[in-house]
Amino acid sequence: MRYIRYAFLACLAIILVSVALANRGAVTLQLLPVDLSILLGMQETLQLPLFIVIFGSIVAGLLIGFFWEWMREYKQRAEAARRQAEIKRLERELRRVKGERDKGKDEVLALLDQAG
């Protein structure tokens, strides 16, 4: 299984390098539309190779997606934490009640009751 993973990563690396080599031409990125940038007095542009724009867009999309999913799952994580805290509280209470129940018993019998 490890070799399959290494083979997949090698193929992916070859594909990414070939895409990068095929798209080395510089492109101009404008941060704002032309009319809005003139209105605000900010005519900011960037000259970047196309493969950086492509790979950067993929990374930005993944990060936005991960963050969005993390925010969406907040309710489930909070509910799981509440249930885990309730389970721990109930286990502590059960140990306390069993301890009170076994207070007058023989120690060996109390240990057997706890194990079973």
Comma- or semicolon-separated keywords:
mainly alpha, cell membrane, elongated, 116 residues, single chain, 76% helix, membrane, LapA_dom
Entry summary:
This protein is mostly helical and 116 residues long.
Protein described:
It is a single chain. Helices cover 76% and strands 9% of the residues. The longest helix has 28 residues, at 74-101. The model has no long low-confidence stretch (mean pLDDT 88). A two-stranded antiparallel ribbon has the order 1-2. It folds into two domains: 16-72, no CATH class; 74-116. With 116 residues, the chain is mainly alpha-helical.
Separation of termini?
Answer: 42 Å
Stretches where pLDDT falls below 50 for ≥5 residues?
Answer: none
Side by side, the strands of the main sheet go: 1-2
Measured on Cα atoms, how large is the radius of gyration? 30 Å
Give the CA-based shape.
elongated
Number of domains: 2
> How many H/I helical runs?
5
Say what oligomer this is. single chain
Give the helix/strand class: mainly alpha
Pfam families: LapA_dom
Domain Lipopolysaccharide assembly protein A: 33-94
Coiled coil: 71-107
Keywords: Cell membrane, Coiled coil, Membrane, Transmembrane, Transmembrane helix
